[in-house]
Amino acid sequence: MLIHQLPLDAAFATLRSVPAGLTHAEAAARWHEFGPNRIEPLAPTPLAVRFLRQFTHLFAILLWVAALLALIANRWMPGQGMATLAAAIVAVIVINGAFSFWQEYRAEETMSALQRLLPHQVRTLRNGATVVLASEDVVPGDVIFLTAGDDVPADCRLVEGFGVRVSNATVTGEARPVSRDAHPSADPDLLRSRNVLLAGTSVTSGEAKALVFATGMHTAFGRIAHLTQTTIDPPSPLQKEIAALSRVLAALAITIGLVVFVIGRFIGLSTSVSVVFAIGIIVANVPEGLLPTVTLAMALAARRMARRNTLVRHLPSVETLGCASVICTDKTGTLTQNRMEIQSLYADGVFVDPHAAETAAFAASHRHLLECAACCHDLKYAGEGGHSQWIGDPMELALARMARTALGDTAGFVRIDEIPFESERKRLVTLHRVAGEPVAFVKGAPEAVLSRANRIDVDGGAVALRLEQREAFGEAATVMADRGLRVLALAYRALPANYVLADAEQDLVVTGLVGFEDPPRPEVPAAVHRCREAGIKIVMATGDHPHTAVAVAREIGLVQGTAPTLLTGDDISRMSDTQLQLALDAPEIVCARVTAEQKLRIVKAFQRKRHIVAVTGDGVNDAPALRAADIGIAMGISGTDVAREASDLVLLDDNFASIVNAVEEGRTVFENIRKFLTYILTSNVPELVPYLAFAFARVPLALTVIQILAVDLGTDMVPALGLGAEAPDTRVMQRPPRTRHDRLLTAGLLVRAYLFLGAFQAVAAMAAFFFVLAGSGWHRGQEVSVTDVLYRQATTACLTAIVLMQVVNVHLCRSRRTSIVSRPFFGNSLITAGIVAEVGLILAINYTAVGNAVFGTAAIGYEAWLVVVPFAVAMLVLDEARKAFVRRRERKTLEGRGPASVEEIAATRP
C-alpha cells in the first residue's frame, strides 16, 4: 500500500522511523544515501557553447560564406574593396551574436528559482529533541513541525494535525486552502490525499507534526522540476521563418551568381573576372543588414512592451505571441485575484448585498453573525512593527475584514477554548467570553452546522428553526454552490458558566450563510472579448474544482454557451492522445482538476493540431507547460520564481489584459519585419544591375563593392529600424492570427521589392550614372579608369540616386495597402531620424575628403540630384495607384461575401 493509505504505525515502520525521530547517526547515513533535500539541476550548457550558438545558425552561416567569398574575390582582384566588405560582414556577425548572447545570458536558470522557493529552515525531531535544521538536511523518516505561515520542505505524512489547512496552489493549481488530517486516506492519488503535505506548498492555518517520506527530486515538486528540465524549448515561428528566409536568399543569390559566371565565361570574360563579378552579385543579394535589423527591431518592440508591463525574456517571443492561435490559461492568480472575497450573504431568509454587511444598520440586526465572523477563526497575528498583519485561511481573513469594518474593535472578545476543525466534523468551534459570559461561535460546512442547529437568529434574537426555514437554508447553499462559491454557515450559542465543552456545538442558533469566491480581475472580460475578436481560442486549465472553474469562465465571458466542454484531470488521464486532440476541437473548453503532466499533454495536443500555443501561469505546476509552449507567459507579482524563469514573457502587473497588448505588439512586429524586408530587398536590385550591365553591356561598373556596403550597413540601417518601430495598424486585432503556412517572404513581397520598387530604383541609379558620364562626353565603348574623377563622380551619382529613392521608398513601405497620406508624415520619429541620418551620411560620403577616400567618391553637382526626382515621383504615384487597386479589390471581396464570424475564421485554419 502507498504510505498515505497506511496506519501511522505502519507508515513509521516502512520508513524505519519512530515518533521520537531519527537518531543523528541514522539521519547522517540517510543524507549520504538520498542526498540533500534540494532540486538537482541538469548539467548546464557551457557558456562557451551558448556563445558559439549565436554564430552558427543558418543566417549567420550565410553571412560567414559571404565574407569568405569576399576574401576570395579580393585575392583574385585586389583593390576592389572586397576585403573591407568581408571585414564589415564579420563585424555584423560578431556584434549581433554578442548582443543576442547577452540577452540570453541575463536570464537566470530555472532550477535556481526552484531552490529559492523551498524554505531554508525547519524544526525537526532528532533523538526525541527538537532541533532547527537547514531544509537541505531533512531526510526521509524525519519528523518535522509546521505551523501557519510555514512552507513545507518535503513530502510528508501527517502524524498529528490541529486545524491544518494548506494552500496547494503552487503545485496543484487549486485556489482554495484544503484541510488536512492524520487519518489514513483511501484515495490512491497522492496529490489528493488528505493526510499528505507536499513540498513547495504552505500551511495557512493550524499546527502539524509530520513524517517526511520523500525529499529532493523524489517529491511531487521534484517530479515537476524534472518535467521542466527535460522539456526542450521549441524554436519560435520567427526563428523558423528567418531560417527559411536564409535558405531562399542563399539559393537565390547563388543561382544568380552561377548564371552570371556561366554567361561571363560564354561571352569571353576571363575566369578571374567572371568569378569576381559572380561573387559580387552573390554578396549584393545577401542583405547583410537584415540580421541586426531584425534583432534590434525586436529589442525595440521589447522596450515598448516593457512600457506596457510585459517583460520579454527571449527576443523571438516578441513576435511569437502575435501569431498565437490558442491561449491556455491558468485560473488562480491569472484570471482571478488569488484572494477570497465574500460574494454572497444569506440571512433572515433573503440574500444580502455583502457590502451592506459592513454598515451599522446591518450590524444592529445581525450582530451575532458578525461576531461569529470576527471571532471564529484560526488566524495568527504575525510580523513586526508596521509590517504586522493577520495571516491564515483567506476565507477567514475575508470574514474578519467584513466583521471588523462593521463592528470595529473586538479585542473584548477573549478566547477561552476551542474545538479544532476536523475534516469529519467539517466545522470549527471557538469559545469566547463576551461581557463576562461564555459564548460558542461555530463556522463550517452548511450541512455540518445546520444538522446541529434548532434555532435561527432573527433581528438579534433566537427563535425556533422551522422546517421550511431549514429547507430555505439548504436551497440557498445550493444556489451559491452552483455559482461556484465556497459556502460556510455561521452559528452561535450562549453557554452557562459551568458549560461542558461538548455542549458547545449542540442546539446552535444559525445566523446565516456566506459565499466566497476568488474574484476575477476586473479587466479580464474585456481582454477575453478582444481575444475572441482576434480569432484566438482561450482554454482554461486549472487545478481547481470543476464548478468553480466553469462559474469563473462564465463570469469573464470565456464560456457563453449553455453546455461548454468540461474536461477533468480524470477524463484526460483516460484519453489517448487522439481522443484528447478531438476533444479540444470543441469551441468552449474548461479543464479542471488537471495536474502538471496533464497541462503539458493539453499544450502538446494543441501543437499537434498545428496551433501556436501560448500558456499563462503562476505556479510551480505551470512550469512544464510554460516551457513546452510556443510562448510561456508568467505572472510577475503573484507568480513563483519557477514559473517566471520557465517563461518567455512576464506580466509585470499580473494583468491578463496585458497579454492582449502584447499580442497586438507581436502581430505588429511580424508586419513590420515584412515592411523593412521589402525596404532592404528593394535596394538589392540597383546594387545588382550595375554588375549585370558591366558584364553583359560592356559599360563601366556603376557601383563599387564598398558603396554597396555604404547602402546595406550605412544609409539603410536606421530607416529600416524605423519601419520596425511602426505603430500597430488599427485593424490588427480584428484579423485572425497568421497560420504556420504564412511566410515572411512571400511571392507578392518579392514581386513588389524586385520587379516594381527595385526596378524603379535601378533605372534611376543607372540614369544618374550615365547622366554624369554623358555630360562629360563619354560614349559607349570608351574605357574609364577607376581612379578618374569622372568615373568617381558617376558612381557617386549612382549611389546618391539609390539613397534618394530609398528615402521615398521608406514611406511607401510603411504600409502594404494604405495610402502614404493616411499616416502622419512625421508620425514615426525613428524614420524621420533615419532619413536625416542617411541624407547626412550621403552628404558626408559625397562632399568630405574622408568620405571620398573611403568610398571612392567625388563631389557632384545639383543637376545629378535632380535627375532622380522624376523617377521618385513616378515610383510614388504608381505605388499609390497599386495600393488603391488593392483596397478596392479587398472592399469588393468583403462586400460580396459578407462579414465572417470569429468561429468561421477559426474553422478555416489548417
TrEMBL record:
Family classification: Belongs to the cation transport ATPase (P-type) (TC 3.A.3) family. Type IIA subfamily.
A GO CC term attached to the entry: plasma membrane
InterPro entries: ATPase_P-typ_cation-transptr_C, ATPase_P-typ_cation-transptr_N, ATPase_P-typ_cyto_dom_N, ATPase_P-typ_P_site, ATPase_P-typ_TM_dom_sf, ATPase_P-typ_transduc_dom_A_sf, ATPase_P-type_domA, Cation_transp_ATPase_P-type
Annotated protein name in UniProt: Calcium-transporting ATPase
A Pfam short name: Cation_ATPase
UniProt membrane topology term: Multi-pass membrane protein
MF-aspect GO terms: ATP binding; ATP hydrolysis activity
Keywords per UniProt: ATP-binding, Cell membrane, Hydrolase, Membrane, Nucleotide-binding, Translocase, Transmembrane, Transmembrane helix
Location(s), subcellular: Cell membrane
EC number: 3.6.3.8
Transmembrane segments: 58-77, 83-102, 248-267, 273-301, 753-774, 794-813, 825-847, 853-878
All copies of domain Cation-transporting P-type ATPase N-terminal, residue ranges: 2-75
Claim: Zinc-finger is one of the keywords in the record: no
Predominant cellular place of this UniProt entry's protein: membrane
Domain of life: Bacteria
SMART domains cross-referenced by the UniProt entry: Cation_ATPase_N (SM00831)
